[in-house]
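Posting for a labmate who doesn't have an account.
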Amino acid sequence: MKRYIILLMLAWILPGCPVPSTPDTPVKAMKKSHFVTGTKYYIYVPSYHKNNRKWPVIITLHGSFGWDGPMRQAEEWQYYAEKYGFILVAPSLSSAEGILPVLWWDSKLKKDEINVLAILDEVVENYNGDPKSVMLSGFSAGGYPMYYIGLRNPQRFSMLVSRGGNSSMKIFENIELTDEARKLPIMIFWGKDDLFTKTAGWRAFRWLRQNDVSTAEMKKVKGGHLRRPEAAYLFWRRHLPKEYRIDDSQ
């Protein structure tokens, strides 16, 4: 209880996890609304994008509002989308809350699932995204919808990456894992000094391995509760087709 009160106080005092500084990009992320659901999302399309080829897609799920949001996710990722050549999507969520209880959580997770998959379909169609090369990543409280959406729809994603992501046994115990889900590559990493989500990372890893998800990996990195978008991309790059693996020096 004492720890919860301290976290609650920090949520009011601190401005949120800062977005790391990166070089400017030739274009900026665009704010859009899904044509059917009306869900808001940000999308970054590389300046050299052309429709004569397929493009890998990263969907990044934000943490708690006040600490994070879809615009911050777009700002932290857009430089890497330009550098490495992928389409970046940052949708607005209802279920991402790591500090206060979420009322009607089950219905909000389901709503986010419907909205995220609808946005993915729209992006694949409008920007020639590759439906077989889609990474789903969740930062902080974005871990909740990441596990929920990713494990329930493994055929839609080529990898899940948790960046200091929260997890919940309530979510895991209500997911019926398929053979396809058990083969989905999953990377769970957090900062060595991250007091917020270290336990959540271990919880998720143990549950996945106990349920025969042998592809699940975990890694402890230096620092605290930081965003680390490039690290997430580099974990995914190992699983990308060779034509998408742009060298770091470019």
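Reply:
Got it, the structure tokens are right above this. The first helix runs from residue 2 to 13.
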